[in-house]
Design goal:
Number of domains: 1
Largest sheet: 7 strands, mixed
Number of strands: 12
Strand content: 15-25%
Bound molecules: NADPH dihydro-nicotinamide-adenine-dinucleotide phosphate
CATH architecture: 2-Layer Sandwich
Radius of gyration: 20 Å
CATH topology: Ribosomal Protein S8, Chain: A, domain 1
CATH class: Alpha Beta
Helix content: 40-55%
Order of helices and strands: EHHHEEHEHEEEHEEEHHEHHHEH
Length: 331
């Protein structure tokens, strides 16, 4: 694979100019470019430059509003409503998080319901932003059906990620951000393209048999991670990110979508908790004792650590040459 070295500011400039030339106003283009760049910065390349064609497809088809003006308001003191105005999620999230954090700090707990938006990215940026305020952050999002409930061969759940962040003193937060599917769809597609097998337990073929052939997913179904337990969490994500906030379930999102290859309209729910109010002032010292035991456990590492190490490494990133050319061609 041929690669070329780019600085992060070059990646951001490129992303911004592609978005601006495909119908985004400055605020939306900047927010999207930051999302792409932070993904590349942290080595979350599956949500960096590689996503730009999908973003552009939905801007060009008119499904997504590139000049969206998110409407953020308090529905009650503890409930923030963020209507994304049919735009991409990053701008609404950037504008909503400060209000959510303020409410959680005052009340101990607050929720934000993001609706009428298209979320095509990783979830860790939003929960980390809550941890930066000294809060615990939780978020989840649904998608379109690809994953069968445990025991079934019928796709009903999206890959339905959820993310959690825990604030630490003078250290990066503890963060996990994970799909509730056994494998991300993108990874299954890459395995099919490259002729690699996927692990047993990833998907079922159309007869319902376990298969390691990634092509079988085309007529078959992806499995939730961890059997019935992962299936229960994927179910919870559907109910929280759609049922609880009045947005579309994954099957409804697929039915309403125009199939342009971009992300369908959907919702995201955010929960922010203030340990200052829930636990009292020494919560961080207390929790650090536990985290130090975790870190001392032989072979264990905290989730989020791989990304945070990437973040403090140098500012140059290796980008696939073909991907870079394709991205330039979208300008
Ligand atoms: P991974 O399985 O790669 O990682 C999940 C989590 O586990 C990460 O927080 C990771 O931390 C942590 N982790 C991985 N390996 C270890 C280890 N050995 N020890 C401890 N922790 C570990 O992620 P997924 O493939 O499930 O998801 C990838 C991304 O896709 C997510 O960001 C998710 O939000 C996104 N996504 C977005 C969707 C959308 O619709 N917007 C849909 C589906 C997925 P670390 O990063 O430090 O390795």
């Amino acid at each position: 694979m041929e690669t070329v070295e780019l600085r992060l500011d070059e990646i951001e400039d490129l992303a911004r100019s592609v978005f601006e030339r495909n119908g985004c106003d400055a605020d939306n283009a900047n927010a999207l470019a930051r999302t792409v760049t932070t993904a590349e910065r942290d080595g979350s390349v599956s949500h960096g430059l590689i996503r730009i064609p999908g973003y552009v497809a939905s801007l060009r088809s008119g499904k997504v509003n590139g000049a969206a003006v998110p409407k953020i308001f308090n529905r009650t003191p503890a409930i923030i409503s963020a209507n994304g105005d049919n735009g991409y999620a990053p701008l609404a999230i950037e504008r909503g998080i400060p209000k959510l954090a303020k409410a959680a700090k005052q009340l101990g707990v607050a929720v934000m319901a993001l609706t009428h938006s298209h979320h095509f990215a990783a979830l860790w940026p939003e929960v980390e932003a809550l941890a930066d305020h000294g809060l615990v952050g939780l978020a989840c999002v649904n998608y379109t059906p690809a994953v069968g409930p445990y025991g079934s061969r019928q796709p009903l759940f999206g890959t339905n990620p959820m993310a959690f962040a825990w604030s630490r003193l003078n250290k990066p937060p503890v963060v996990f951000d994970m799909a509730t599917a056994s494998m991300a769809i993108g990874d299954v597609k890459i395995a099919a393209r490259d002729g690699h097998a996927v692990p047993s337990g990833t998907c079922l073929d159309k007869e319902g048999n376990d298969t390691t052939d990634p092509n079988a997913i085309l007529d078959g179904v992806l499995l939730p991670f961890g059997g019935h337990k992962g299936s229960a969490i994927a179910l919870m994500v559907e109910l929280l990110a759609a049922g609880a906030i009045g947005e579309r379930f994954s099957y409804e999102a697929a039915e309403a979508d125009n199939g342009d290859g971009g992300h369908p309209r959907g919702g995201e729910i955010f929960l922010a908790l203030s340990p200052d109010l829930l636990a009292g002032r020494d919560w961080q010292t207390h929790s650090e004792k536990f985290l130090r035991k975790f870190e001392a456990a032989d072979g264990a590492r905290l989730p989020g650590q791989r990304r945070h190490r990437m973040r403090i490494s140098d500012q140059m990133r290796l980008v696939n040459t073909a991907l870079l050319e394709n991205t330039h061609a979208l300008k």
